[in-house]
Design goal:
This protein is mainly alpha-helical. The protein contains nine helices and no strands.
């Protein structure tokens, strides 16, 4: 990352020094709410402040220049540079994109796309920065700094893709492990339920056998009637025996 920071800084320094040249589209007449002299003054003051590491002051000067001529690509480009130095990358990208769309020559367009790519890359918009660098090289194929930054951004994108793939694989492995653990738990629960049923069946069978072996209970009334019947039978049997005994005696006496 240090390498690209140096390249970015070098690119901005070169561009801002060249931007001190007046916009050839601006004449000596009055321009959009201010004079040509005021426009030059604000632009030059902004450049001095920028080179003195006073980016907030430079931003204000460039905005004042744009308030005089809001069509100036030079002032917009330098405003983007001041915003970038303050790490206002989203605002800087809008200024560079504006210049890239309105620039009338390949050199200005290439510089705008180069710094647009830098602003996007600082926001981790890697794919968008790659497209901006490619646009810069279409307008200036021999720009070494742009080639370097493009290579850096493409390597970063590849690393992101590799990391995303690894994260996806890790998530899939984790999900597979969770599914396997759940399957194992379900199988254990099923085995335990089956063991419980196997143990329950002998107990149920034993309970049925005990119930079959257990004598049928009778009420006290039925028991009393059974005793009375037994007593009656014994009484009748006793009377019958006594009758037989008397009959035998009579037979014996008669023989005598």
């Amino acid at each position: 990352m240090k390498g690209i920071t140096l390249l970015v800084a070098a690119s901005f320094l070169t561009v801002c020094l060249q931007a001190q040249l007046l916009n050839p589209e601006v004449g000596d007449d009055e321009v959009a709410g201010g004079s040509q002299r005021d426009f030059r003054s604000f632009l030059r003051e902004g450049n001095r402040q920028f080179n003195s590491q006073r980016a907030p002051d430079a931003e204000r000067s460039y905005r004042r220049a744009l308030s005089i001529d809001d069509r100036s690509d030079m002032a917009a480009f330098n405003l983007g540079s001041a915003l970038y130095r303050q790490e206002k990358f989203d605002e800087a990208a809008r200024e560079f994109e504006r210049v890239a769309a309105s620039a009338t020559d390949n050199t200005s367009r290439a510089r705008a796309y180069h710094n647009l790519g830098n602003s996007l890359l600082q926001q981790q918009k890697v794919q968008e920065s790659i497209e901006a660098y490619k646009q810069a090289l279409r307008n200036n194929p021999n720009d070494f700094d742009t080639k370097y930054n493009l290579s850096y951004a493409m390597n970063m994108l590849q690393n992101q893709d590799d990391q995303d793939n690894q994260d996806q694989q890790d998530n899939q492995d984790q999900q597979d492990n969770q599914d396997q653990n759940q399957d194992n738990q379900d199988q254990q629960d099923q085995d335990q339920n089956q063991d419980g049923q196997d143990q329950q069946e002998p107990q149920d069978q034993q309970r049925d056998e005990n119930q079959q072996q257990q004598p049928q209970q009778i009420s006290p009334e039925d028991a009393q009637r059974m005793l009375d019947a037994i007593a009656q039978d014994e009484k009748e049997l006793l009377e019958k025996l006594q009758q037989q005994e008397r009959a035998g005696r009579r037979n014996i006496e008669r023989n005598w």
